[in-house]
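Hi support team,

I submitted a single chain yesterday and got back a structure, but I'm not sure I'm reading the token output correctly. Could someone confirm the output below corresponds to the sequence I sent? I've pasted both exactly as they appear in my results page.

Thanks,
R.
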Amino acid sequence: MRVLVAGGGTAGHIEPALNLADELVRRDSDTRVIALGTSRGLEVTLVPARGYELELISAVPMPRKPNLDLLKLPARLRRAIKDTRAIIETHDIDVVVGFGGYVSIPAYLAARGRTPIVVHEANARAGLANRVGARIADGVAECVSGSLPGAQLTGNPLRQAIATLNRSEMRATARAHFGIDDDAKVVLVFGGSLGAQSLNRVIGQVVNENLLDAVVLLHSYGAKNEAPVQASSTYVPLPYIDRMDLAYSAADFVVCRSGAMTVAELTAVGLPACYVPLPHGNGEQKLNALPVVDADGGLLVADDEFTAEFVRDMIAPLINDDVRLARMSEQSRSIGKPDAAGQLADLVESVVGGKQ
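Hi R., thanks for writing in. Yes, this is the structure output for that exact sequence:
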């Protein structure tokens, strides 16, 4: 099987595409996966690092308001569709799997009527590309019910290291890795690969005022940022965590954004969290977290309401309540879909099989 995955731009689009690729290749080593992207996205580094081929097309920015780019859009889109169609033909692609983002629309339109299409929507509120793609797709998958009409609820494809993670078995190894005592309570804080300034600022105040007494904060503050305070026995700052499986295993609770992949990973491993959605965008991060929060598997707070006082009043008591923490962990896990990559791979294979 020859598969073209389209999800360039951000890690939120690229990571599930590569996780699906891993699952398809794991099932059949003869499967060939090519990723579609542009020179402007993270796929330029992320795709080759995972060992997959990358084909580049011209970027087609979608202007949010009338400007010169809007006038250039038709010509740019026609060129991107033409280039993508050539890639599909050159590699004799059997199926196009799109994950949203700016390379997906050319992929969907290039494949329409020629090559089977599968659309995967990670967020609770679908973006323009996937709303267009879902109308012409042979299979549609989603992570949150109701994001796209007629979609199959598969969840978000995860890396094997996360999908198969047993936190309790890895706990001692994880604590040793980060230099944390076995009997400590640990709160993991991260704001995505780039960190989050507002979370960093609040965590710095929490540490300075000792608002989480005897709790260790394992804090990924972002490679482009500076740690808000110096490291100590109860504050472990890191610019980036490349072993999130160990970070999840070391943690008892998490403070984070609520991007689709973050929510998928935390629920798959059964970690309760305080979700602090990005304050901009179309509100999808809040919607991503709502099913978990409604199930009592997490807390939800607006970015401007996430303060040191909130941590003191809402999170500190929770961390010291073992019964509630255990219950929240179970409820978080009840939302998780660790086999999402397998379910999406099943859908892709069924679509290809149905067209042969």
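A quick pointer for reading it: Residues 2-158+339-355 form a domain with the Rossmann fold fold (CATH 3.40.50.2000). Let us know if anything else looks off.

Best,
Support desk
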